[in-house]
Amino acid sequence: MTKKMCAGFLIGLLIAGGAAVWAQAPEAQETESKVPELTSFHEIIYPIWHTAYPDKDYAALRSYVPEVKSLAEKLYAAKLPGILRDKQAKWDQALAEFQSSVDAYQAAAAGTDDATLLDAAEVLHARYEMMVRTIRPVLKEVDAFHKTLYVVYHKYLPDKDFARITEAGGEMLVQAEAITEASLPKRLEAKTEAFDAAARELFQAVKSLVESGQSGGGEAVSAAVEIVHTKYQALEKIFD
């Protein structure tokens, strides 16, 4: 191979590799349970809640208004990633309450009543935390399973890519088993019995999916995926 041909070949590989990375990036973003604008707002809520509020530093609380407004406006325009599409209604409700708290904070900062300003800062923090809880996965094991299920249900199934569904089934089975072995945090211990039952049903549904991929046709695999999706929704609903 000549130097010219070799250079052309390498350039071709770089272009193809870049295209592959570009193609994968949107899918990676879609399966991350994160909203960057929500994370960014933490940069201002942290000093408000952990420094200015406990120190009753009213001057600092008032000085934060421009940054609160700027970061909040970006959050109002934020879009949820695909994996959080089922949480859109809850997100919209939490966002409306958060926006009201931002307005109240700005109004209080413009006034002279320091007690009202402290109250507004407390509510702003509470509404922000509510938004975080709205999208935060209950368990890392559930989040890992959901990421795989999202791709299977919203990508492979519509494309009737049964080979890739079958391939993903093995990974989902391992992830579903991990969910059955997971323990809920203390604040959710009262839901343990319902969670364990739903986790076992999800595991059995994934097991049936794997078996369908090994012995059944496309229709059997499609039906099995729908059942897995329904069982996963039932698991998530426990925490509504």
Structural class estimated from helices and strands: mainly alpha
Question: What share of residues are in beta strands?
Answer: under 5%
Mind telling me the C-alpha Rg?
A: 24 Å
CATH topology of the largest domain: Four Helix Bundle (Hemerythrin (Met), subunit A)
Count helical runs: 10
Helix-residue proportion: over 70%
Structure write-up:
This protein is an all-alpha fold. The chain has two domains: 36-135, Four Helix Bundle (Hemerythrin (Met), subunit A) (Up-down Bundle); 140-237, Up-down Bundle (Four Helix Bundle (Hemerythrin (Met), subunit A)), CATH 1.20.120. The chain starts with a helix and ends with a helix. 25% of the residues are buried. The chain has helices at 3-30, 36-55, 58-63, 65-76, 88-110, 114-135, 140-156, 162-181, 192-215, 218-237.
Task: Describe how the helices and strands are arranged.
Blueprint: H1 3-30, H2 36-55, H3 58-63, H4 65-76, H5 88-110, H6 114-135, H7 140-156, H8 162-181, H9 192-215, H10 218-237
Helix pairs in contact: 2-4, 2-6, 4-5, 5-6, 7-8, 7-10, 8-9, 9-10
Defining traits:
240 residues, Four Helix Bundle (Hemerythrin (Met), subunit A), 2 domains, 80% helix, disordered N terminus
Question: What's the gist of this structure?
Answer:
The protein has ten helices and no strands. It is mainly alpha-helical.
